[in-house]
Design a protein that fits this description.
Layout: H1 2-11, H2 15-39, H3 41-63, H4 68-71, H5 81-110, H6 124-158, H7 160-174, H8 182-198, H9 201-225, H10 240-271, H11 287-308
C-alpha cells in the first residue's frame, strides 16, 4: 500500500504544484516574456517558450525525483497515428476560426477590437525560421506544460474528461488575448484528448505544430500572392455584418469538417482499442481548482482595461 502511494506520488503533480507554476509562469510570460519579445521577436519567443514554459517545470520535476516519463507521457507514437493527427488538426481550423470570430464579434459589440500583429514570412528563409519558432518551439514547449504538467495534475484529481477540459481552459486563458480565447480553448481540449487517447505527449506536439504551422504557411502564401504588405498585420473586419457573414461561411465549412473529424477520431479509437475514453463522472470542485482561473480573470481584466479603455 505504501509502495503504491509512493508510486502515485512519483507519477503525479499535485493541483497545488500545477497552480503555483501556472500563476508564476503567467506573470513571467506577461512581464519578462513581453519585454524580450518587444526587443526582438524571434529570440524573445525562444526565451519565452524554452526559458519560461518548458525548462522550469522539467527541472522542478527532476529535482523532486518525480517520473518525468510518466508525468509528461514520453511514450512512442505509432507511425500510422501521425498522418491521422495532422489531418485532424487541419480539419479543426474552421472551427477554431469560428470560435475566435465569436470573441471578436462580442468585443466589436462592446467597443472596438484591436488588431494583433501576426508575423508572416516574405521569403523562404523567413518562412523556415518562423515555422521552426512559432510552430516548432511553441508546439513542443507549450505541450510539455499544458498537456504534460497541467493535464497530469488535473486528470489525476478530476478524471480524464475534466482534466482535459481544465487543461484546455487554462491553455486558452494563458494566451491573455481576449480576441484569441475560445479558439485555443477548443484546441487545448482536443490536444488533451489526443494525448489521453494515444498515451503520448507527441500526439499533442504534432497536432500543435500542425495548427501553428498551417497558420505560418497560410500567412506566407498570402504574402506571395498579395500586392498589399501584410507582413505584420492582422485581419480587420469593419462591421458586425461582415463578421457575421464570415462566421457563417466558416461555420458551414466547420460542419463539413466535423464529418472528417469524427471519422479520424473513430479510426484512432479503433486503433488504440478505446471504446469510450471519457467517463461521465460527477464533478466536485474545490477552491484549488478555481484558483488559477480566478487569478487569471483578474489579470485578464487588467489586460482588457489597458488595451480597450
Amino acid at each position: 500500500m505504501i509502495e503504491q502511494e509512493q508510486m502515485e506520488t512519483r507519477n503525479q503533480l499535485t493541483i497545488s504544484e500545477a497552480n503555483t507554476f501556472f500563476i508564476i509562469l503567467a506573470v513571467l510570460f506577461l512581464t519578462i516574456g513581453g519585454y524580450v519579445q518587444s526587443r526582438e521577436l524571434i529570440s524573445g519567443l525562444l526565451i519565452t517558450e524554452f526559458g519560461i514554459m518548458a525548462l522550469p517545470i522539467l527541472i522542478y520535476t527532476a529535482i523532486r525525483k518525480k517520473s518525468v516519463k510518466e508525468i509528461f507521457k514520453f511514450r512512442k507514437l505509432q507511425l500510422k497515428t501521425i498522418p491521422k493527427i495532422i489531418v485532424l488538426a487541419a480539419l479543426m481550423l474552421p472551427a477554431v476560426a469560428v470560435a475566435n470570430l465569436v470573441t471578436i464579434f462580442i468585443i466589436e459589440l462592446l467597443g472596438e477590437s484591436i488588431v494583433s500583429p501576426v508575423p508572416t514570412a516574405s521569403s523562404p528563409s523567413e518562412f523556415l525560421l518562423l515555422f521552426a519558432v512559432i510552430a516548432g518551439s511553441a508546439g513542443i514547449c507549450e505541450e510539455l506544460f499544458f498537456r504534460g504538467a497541467i493535464l497530469n495534475a488535473f486528470e489525476s484529481d478530476l478524471g480524464k474528461k475534466w482534466g482535459a477540459i481544465f487543461s484546455g481552459l487554462l491553455f486558452g486563458i494563458f494566451h491573455f488575448n481576449p480576441q484569441n480565447l475560445f479558439g485555443p480553448i477548443l484546441l487545448g481540449i482536443m490536444f488533451a484528448y489526443l494525448v489521453q487517447l494515444t498515451g503520448s505527449i507527441f500526439a499533442g506536439v504534432i497536432a500543435h505544430i500542425t495548427n501553428n504551422g498551417l497558420a505560418v504557411t497560410l500567412g506566407y502564401v498570402n504574402n506571395l500572392f498579395s500586392t498589399v504588405d501584410t507582413s505584420s498585420s492582422g485581419v480587420t473586419l469593419n462591421s458586425p455584418s461582415a463578421l457575421i457573414a464570415v462566421m457563417g461561411f466558416y461555420l458551414m465549412v466547420a460542419f463539413v469538417c466535423l464529418i472528417g473529424i469524427r471519422a479520424v477520431l473513430r479510426s484512432l479509437r479503433k486503433q488504440y482499442s478505446v471504446t469510450k475514453l471519457w467517463v461521465d463522472e460527477p464533478l466536485t470542485l474545490k477552491f484549488k481548482h478555481y484558483l488559477p482561473i480566478a487569478l487569471s480573470l483578474v489579470i485578464y481584466a487588467l489586460v482588457i482595461k489597458l488595451a480597450y479603455f
